[in-house]
Amino acid sequence: MTKYFDEVITSVLMKKVVRRRGVQPCTRYLIKWKELQESDALWETLKDFWQIKGIIQ
């Protein structure tokens, strides 16, 4: 089983802001993982995923 913190991020493909009624907006980033295809990219938030912070800033 592979864990996210064992993987390497190659790039951030896209950024989007998710808005829902009654909840503060949340920014999500589409992450491309090393050795995986773009179709396997995952949406992550800065709050939930610490490795993104170094790439985004």
Automatic annotation (TrEMBL):
User: So which domain of life are we looking at?
Assistant: Eukaryota
Entry-linked SUPFAM superfamilies: Chromo domain-like
Query: What residue stretches are annotated with the Chromo domain?
Result: 12-48
Q: What is this protein called?
A: Chromo domain-containing protein
Q: Can you name the source organism?
A: Platanthera guangdongensis
